[in-house]
Write a structure and sequence with these properties.
With 254 residues, the protein is α/β, with parallel strands linked by helices. The chain is built from eleven helices and five strands. α1 packs across α7.
C-alpha cells in the first residue's frame, strides 16, 4: 500500500515564533539542504558531532515524522523544521526550495517505484492528481504567490545550490543575520557533500536491513533519458509554462 505525503499537515504542537520551516515539494533536494544546515548549526554550537542518515532528524526535524506527542526538543541555536506542506499561514519564517518540475518528476517517480512499489508508467505518474506535475504546480504557487505580507520567505533554487552552494548558503545566513566564517562554511559543506551523504547512507543501510530507499546517487534508478519521451516533456512543459517562465525560462522551447 502506497503512503502519500499529506500536504495539509501543519506543524508541531509546540511551535515557536522563530522556528524556520524548510519547505519543498517532494524530491526537490531538501535532504541535502537539511544536511548542510544541520552541519552548520553543529559547527556554530561547537558540537563534536556531524549529521548522518541515522541522526539527521534530530538536527532538522521532519514535521511529517514527529514521534510521541510530537513536541520538538530544540537543541541548537536555530530550529529548522522540514515540511512538504502546501501553504501554511502559521509558518512565519520559511525557506522555500524549488526545483525544476522535469527533474522533480523523474526523481519522485524513481523514489515511488522503489519506496512505495509504484508500478504504473512514468506517463501515468506525471498526470497523477496526488503527486504528478499538477500537484507540483499547485504546491509552488501556494507558497510563492501567497498574499501574507508578514510572512518571511527566502526562495532557494536547487539548481543554484548545485551551481554555487557556498554563495547560496552564505546569502541565506546573511538573511538570518549570521555572517558565516568561510572556514566553518567550507567544513560544513564538505561534511554535507553528495559523496559524504552517499557514504553515510550506505553505512546506514548496512546497519538497518529495513531501509530500501536510495536518496543519493543513481543506484537502481531509471535514467532520465529513458523516461522523458517527447510526449511527456511536452506535457510537463505545457502544464508549467507560467512557472518555467518565472523560474526556469531556459527550459522553455524556442
Amino acid at each position: 500500500m502506497m503512503t502519500i505525503f499529506d500536504p495539509a499537515e501543519g506543524g508541531p504542537p509546540n511551535p515557536a515564533h522563530d522556528d524556520i520551516y524548510l519547505v519543498e515539494f517532494p524530491r526537490s533536494g531538501i535532504t541535502w539542504l537539511s544536511f548542510i544546515l544541520g552541519n552548520i548549526e553543529l559547527r556554530l554550537a561547537g558540537a563534536n558531532e556531524f549529521v548522518t542518515y541515522y541522526n539527521h532528524h534530530r538536527h532538522v526535524v521532519d514535521v511529517h515524522q514527529l514521534r510521541g506527542d510530537g513536541r520538538i526538543n530544540r537543541r541548537l541555536g536555530r530550529t529548522f523544521i522540514k515540511s512538504h506542506s502546501t501553504y501554511n499561514p502559521d509558518y512565519y519564517f520559511v525557506v522555500y526550495l524549488v526545483r525544476n518540475p522535469i527533474d522533480v518528476m523523474v526523481s519522485y517517480y524513481n523514489f515511488m517505484r522503489h519506496e512505495q512499489d509504484y508500478r504504473e508508467s512514468f506517463d501515468h505518474f506525471v498526470r497523477h492528481p496526488l503527486f504528478g506535475v499538477g500537484k507540483w504546480k499547485e504546491h509552488v504557487n501556494s507558497w510563492l504567490y501567497a498574499k501574507d505580507e508578514h510572512q518571511r520567505l527566502h526562495l532557494l533554487r536547487y539548481e543554484d545550490l548545485v551551481r554555487d552552494v557556498q554563495r547560496v548558503i552564505s546569502d541565506l545566513y546573511m538573511n538570518l543575520g549570521v555572517a558565516l566564517e568561510e572556514v566553518l562554511l567550507r567544513d560544513a559543506l564538505e561534511r554535507s557533500s553528495l559523496e559524504s551523504m552517499k557514504h553515510s547512507e550506505e553505512h546506514y543501510r548496512r546497519s538497518n536491513p529495513r531501509v530500501c530507499a536510495t536518496y543519493v546517487g543513481k543506484e537502481r534508478k531509471i535514467p532520465r533519458s529513458d523516461l522523458l519521451t517527447d510526449d511527456v516533456m511536452a506535457f510537463i512543459i505545457g502544464e508549467t509554462v507560467e512557472e518555467l517562465r518565472a523560474f526556469y525560462p531556459d527550459l522553455l522551447p524556442g
